[in-house]
Amino acid sequence: MTSKRSEFDPRYDQAYQRGGSDGGFRDIIDEAPQVVEISDAPQHQPGAAPQVWADLELRQRRYRTLIWAMAGGLVALGLFGFFADLIFPPEPSYLQPNSYGYMTEPWSQRLRYAAPNLINLGVLTAVVQLVLEQMQVFKLRTGR
User: Fold this and answer.
1) Is residue 95 helix, strand or coil?
2) Do 99 and 79 contact (CB within 8 A), yes or no?
3) What is the pLDDT of residues 63-96, one digit of tens each?
4) Were 90 and a residue from 19, 84, 86, 106 both cysteine, which residue would form a disulfide, CB within 3.0 to 4.6 Å?
5) Cα–Cα distance, 140 to 9 (Å, whole number)
């Protein structure tokens, strides 16, 4: 079994041996640690002046507005495609067979086939634009 030794190993400090202590800690720091503040204020890159960021923001604002308008227009066109035959009902005289014997569809019914794709494309454009704007805001806030 194990035997307890009452002698200390002189190679090690007493604080690290069983039963040995010198009554206190020798490595106590007298001063308090330094406080590091973390702020959400935008930190500009050292090489770029704040005016450069403002110019970039002004140049990109019109493109962002254009992309948001395009996304809204695609969704609106898709919704219009779903309800086009209700808004503009086809005339009965227009529904005549063509030379091959098939019935010709009015433009409002053909637009219905493209409507889900237009809505999906508009929503996807809006989501991508939102992600890109949030990434740019994050870069501006962190200064990266």
Assistant:
1) coil
2) no
3) 889 999 999 999 999 999 999 888 888 777 666 7
4) 106
5) 59
Token couple for 4 = 């307890």
CA atoms within 13 A on the CB side of 85: 14
Are 99 and 49 in contact by the 8 Å Cβ rule? The answer is: no
> DSSP code of 48?
S
Q: Count CB-CB contacts under 10 A for residue 69.
A: 10
Could you give the residue ranges of the DSSP H alpha helices within 1-144?
Answer: 50-82, 84-87, 107-142
**Which residues lie closer than 8 Å to 22 by C-beta, 6 or more apart?**
14, 15
In this prediction, residue 22 carries a pLDDT of 55
